[in-house]
Amino acid sequence: MAEAVDTAIRTEEHLLVQAGTGTGKSLGYLVPAVRHAVLADERVVVSTATLALQRQVMTRDLPWWRTPSRRSCPARPR
């Protein structure tokens, strides 16, 4: 999924992905989105359907991604 999201970002095309609960969808779109934002020095807006998912992204998924050993990005997001 992350590769498909990365391709969609680079080609500026829409992408529809469906996957079950607990399959890592949040990281599947966050990692390529944040990587693009850092490399292109642009902002990325992530809109969630629920406050619970928003809380998960802010308190669990993004902090996990910021760990240097898990990052595949040459710079740190601002």
TrEMBL record:
Source organism, top-level taxon: Bacteria
Record InterPro entries: DEAD/DEAH_box_helicase_dom (IPR011545), Helic_SF1/SF2_ATP-bd_DinG/Rad3 (IPR014013), P-loop_NTPase (IPR027417)
Signal peptide location: none
SUPFAM superfamilies: P-loop containing nucleoside triphosphate hydrolases
Pfam hit, one: DEAD
Domain Helicase ATP-binding: 1-78
Alphabetic keyword roster: ATP-binding, Hydrolase, Nucleotide-binding
Protein name per its UniProtKB record: Helicase ATP-binding domain-containing protein
Organism: Paraoerskovia sediminicola
Lineage of the organism: Bacteria, Bacillati, Actinomycetota, Actinomycetes, Micrococcales
